């Protein structure tokens, strides 16, 4: 009997990457592999609930609940105002400190990760993150990079800079942003390169924190929103998935006392939920629209009272199952959210607040699959008008129907699992010389 | 008398919901026959209330009746069945149900006056008072000095969910360990059948509503079989509050099945009179159910744990 290959999935400590990996792991399991998860402290149980074995980075890495709560309060106070800034203004205020924190994490988990990988002895590792962990590169097995951010994460002269929210045509602005990005991230990058050197990994170019995998790189970006590239990515090691939507539990529609209008889902991800004032203002607008709204309040449900009769608030939703039933998805441009909207042919109203949300917002509008609303620049009247316009846009709906049909016919999760097993098989053949 | 009639109707509505859930979990389709005897056994009641519930379901076009053949299902799984269940839920405690549902959805404030509720629901003061009395029997509202009524804390926030698990972790094993625990074998057998059907159901037939129903019956059974009256009373009130507080859930199907299998393991131990083992298994079951989802996390930012999963 052949042993099932053990595939260790190591997503960053966020729901986007984590649940994206759940989708791939579900298919790996179906295709005969043994997917397991390496979890950051605090993510205990998230993957076990989907039936996967979890290996945890040590609890000591996690601060006490009280310290984490304090950190969050401080984070909210510091960064909430930054979410209203434009991408270039966010570089110094939000992006640079975030990269510093990412580098800190990579350095702090390295020894424990190395020990954990030695214990798991995986046949392959799937890394869904924005930074390289030397322990992964040196684990002695093939590793796969999952680019679950926007396609801009892989630079190219014709692709706008990562996190810029710019159009490819805006060449001058792109050049300015790239320069500012490299300047803002220089200190973190220098520190990271020193760490890599100590761990025996080659230096990376300015602004780059994660190299492509020599084995396989999986990109979520569906063809409907892809960029033209000057340097084509090699077909054998770069695979574009048509999204990566996981199988989720059935969503039970709540009762709305007020109306039976179209269903609209609003979620800004777990981080975006901290902006309760913004969501409260939006709910006031929703109350004036003859539609039903499902709003993800994340961990802040207690901050809301007087919920209108056409709004249902919750702290967590099986998002793909909800999006499948909606007429419009209002989100922050997170790549999973955007891909899920495209997968189910649902228009996006993107209100970005940071990171690649800016890139996806630009792309949604440019490709006619959604509209962008500036987080700080809307009034009740303009938001209402945007929502109504999207609900009535028949052309966009037709376009999205085609996109959805194509994506659903080419399951990204299924393809990802197949490609991972193929890469593993090729790597083994390479080792034994039988390939 | 009116109260007795009302209670009888309530139990018929409740049974009708149970019958429809069982029919759907068994994968029954429109046109399938519903045998009285089989439903009497699975619901643990005699054929008379089953017949009354069937009749009620016929009134609501969920079943149809054929001379000398019996009752047949009229609705299909999915939208039709969901609507039928909603209709039944609306009929159940009608106004009390709507008030409770709106409070759970944070649509109405914690403190309410009868006149404000009468205005919101277009109902008479007497109807509102009756609804509040029904809710007060379950400890969900309490009358304040004067005319106001206050909703008691529901299990609807991370903190209250955490406290609920703490309470249950103390009380449910104790319910089993208190000397004199006596398992109701007949009801346990019915629950076992339902749990096994749930475990054997196809993925697309798994519903949170179906899980919640069996889960609630299981934990209520444990409380009712306890010999300690105070533990029993405390748990039963708490389970009623849990039932009232629970809304849509998003627990993945894997965990729902795992939790159902844990129920079966606990029943196995109880049937063998292995109470220490059953109590330990209950602790494991509750600890697994309370695993907390991080509420927010992003690049480089530590996850924040605000509360357990419902």
TrEMBL record, chain A:
Q: Where is the Erythromycin biosynthesis protein CIII-like C-terminal domain?
A: 287-423
Q: Which SUPFAM superfamilies match?
A: UDP-Glycosyltransferase/glycogen phosphorylase
An example Gene Ontology molecular-function term = hexosyltransferase activity
Q: Which Pfam families match?
A: EryCIII-like_C (PF06722)
Gene3D superfamilies on file: Glycogen Phosphorylase B (3.40.50.2000)
List the transmembrane segments: none
| Keyword terms of this UniProt record | Glycosyltransferase, Transferase
Annotated InterPro entries: EryCIII-like_C, UDP-glycosyltransferase, UDP_glucos_trans
Protein name, UniProt field: Glycosyltransferase, MGT family
UniProtKB/TrEMBL annotation, chain B:
Question: InterPro entries, per this entry?
Answer: GntR_C (IPR011711), TF_FadR/GntR_C (IPR008920), Tscrpt_reg_HTH_GntR (IPR000524), WH-like_DNA-bd_sf (IPR036388), WH_DNA-bd_sf (IPR036390)
What residue stretches are annotated with the HTH gntR-type domain? 9-76
Q: Does the keyword Iron-sulfur apply?
A: no
Recall the GO molecular function terms of this protein's record.
DNA binding; DNA-binding transcription factor activity
Per the record, the domain of life is Bacteria
Gene3D superfamilies annotated for this entry?
GntR ligand-binding domain-like (1.20.120.530), Winged helix-like DNA-binding domain superfamily/Winged helix DNA-binding domain (1.10.10.10)
Q: Which UniProt keywords apply?
A: DNA-binding, Transcription, Transcription regulation
Q: Which PROSITE patterns match?
A: HTH_GNTR
Q: Name one Pfam family in it.
A: GntR
SMART domains in the cross-refs: FCD (SM00895), HTH_GNTR (SM00345)
Name by which UniProt lists this protein: DNA-binding transcriptional regulator, GntR family
């Amino acid at each position: 009997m052949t042993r099932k290959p053990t595939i260790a999935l190591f997503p960053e400590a966020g729901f986007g990457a984590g649940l994206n990996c759940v989708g791939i792991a579900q298919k790996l399991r179906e295709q005969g592999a043994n997917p397991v998860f390496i979890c950051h402290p605090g993510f205990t149980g998230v993957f076990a609930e989907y039936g996967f074995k979890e290996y945890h980075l040590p609890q000591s890495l996690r601060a006490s609940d009280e310290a984490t709560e304090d950190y969050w309060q401080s984070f909210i106070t510091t960064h909430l105002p930054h979410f209203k800034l434009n991408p270039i203004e966010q570089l110094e205020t939000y992006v640079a400190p975030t990269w510093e924190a990412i580098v800190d994490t990579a350095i702090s988990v390295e020894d424990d990760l190395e020990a954990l990988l030695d214990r798991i002895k995986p046949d392959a590792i799937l890394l869904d993150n924005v930074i390289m962990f030397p322990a992964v590169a040196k684990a002695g097995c093939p590793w796969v990079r999952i680019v679950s951010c926007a396609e801009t994460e892989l630079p190219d002269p014709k692709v706008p800079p990562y996190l810029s929210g710019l159009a490819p045509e805006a060449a001058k602005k792109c050049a300015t942003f790239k320069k500012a990005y490299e300047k803002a991230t220089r200190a973190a990058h220098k520190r990271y390169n020193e760490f890599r050197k100590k761990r025996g990994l080659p230096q990376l170019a300015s602004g780059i924190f994660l190299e492509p995998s020599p084995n396989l790189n999986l990109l979520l970006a569906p063809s409907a929103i892809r960029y033209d590239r000057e340097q084509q990515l090699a077909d054998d090691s770069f695979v574009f998935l048509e999204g990566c939507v996981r199988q989720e539990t059935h969503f039970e529609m709540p009762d709305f006392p007020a109306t039976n209008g179209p269903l609209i889902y609003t979620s800004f991800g777990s981080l975006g939920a901290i902006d309760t004032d913004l969501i409260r203002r939006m709910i006031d607008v929703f109350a004036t629209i003859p539609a039903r709204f499902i709003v993800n309040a994340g961990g802040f449900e207690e901050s809301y009272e007087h919920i209108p009769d056409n709004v249902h608030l919750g702290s967590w939703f099986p998002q793909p199952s909800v999006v499948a039933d909606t007429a419009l998805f209002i989100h922050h441009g997170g790549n999973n959210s955007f891909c899920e909207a495209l997968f189910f042919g649902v228009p996006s109203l993107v209100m970005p607040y940071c990171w690649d949300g800016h890139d996806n917002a630009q792309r949604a509008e440019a490709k006619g699959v959604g509209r962008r609303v500036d987080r700080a620049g809307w009034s009740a009247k303009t938001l209402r008008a945007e929502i109504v316009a999207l609900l009535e846009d028949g052309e966009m709906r037709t376009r999205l129907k085609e996109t959805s049909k194509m994506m659903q016919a080419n399951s990204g999760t299924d393809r990802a699992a197949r490609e991972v097993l193929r890469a593993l098989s090729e790597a083994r053949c390479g080792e034994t010389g039988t390939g | 008398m009116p109260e007795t009639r009302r209670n009888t109707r309530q139990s018929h509505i409740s049974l009708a919901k149970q019958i429809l859930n069982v029919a759907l979990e068994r994968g029954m389709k429109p046109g399938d026959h519903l045998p009285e005897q089989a439903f009497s056994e699975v619901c643990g009641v005699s054929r008379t209330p089953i017949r009354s519930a069937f009749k009620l379901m016929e009134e609501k076009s969920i079943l149809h009746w054929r001379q000398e053949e019996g009752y047949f299902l009229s609705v299909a799984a999915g939208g039709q069945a969901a609507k039928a269940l909603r209709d039944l839920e609306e009929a159940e405690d009608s106004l009390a149900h709507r008030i409770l549902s709106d409070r759970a959805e944070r649509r109405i404030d914690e403190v309410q006056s009868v006149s404000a509720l009468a205005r919101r629901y277009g109902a008479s003061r007497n109807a509102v008072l009756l609804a509040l009395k029904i809710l007060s029997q379950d400890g969900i509202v309490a009358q304040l000095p004067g005319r106001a009524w206050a909703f008691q804390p529901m299990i609807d926030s991370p903190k209250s969910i955490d406290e609920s698990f703490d309470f249950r972790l103390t009380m449910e094993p104790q319910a089993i360990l208190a000397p004199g625990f006596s398992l109701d074998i007949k009801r346990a057998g019915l629950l076992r059948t339902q749990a096994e059907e749930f475990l054997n159901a196809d993925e697309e037939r798994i519903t949170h509503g179906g899980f919640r129903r069996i889960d609630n019956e299981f934990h209520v059974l444990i409380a009712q079989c306890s010999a300690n009256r105070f533990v029993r009373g405390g748990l039963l009130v708490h389970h009623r509050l849990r039932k009232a507080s629970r809304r849509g859930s998003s627990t993945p199907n894997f965990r729902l099945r795992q939790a159902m299998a844990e129920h079966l393991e606990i029943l196995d131990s109880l049937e063998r009179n292995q109470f220490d083992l059953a109590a330990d298994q209950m602790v494991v079951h509750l600890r697994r159910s309370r695993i907390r989802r991080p509420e927010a996390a992003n690049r480089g930012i530590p996850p924040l744990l605000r509360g357990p999963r419902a």
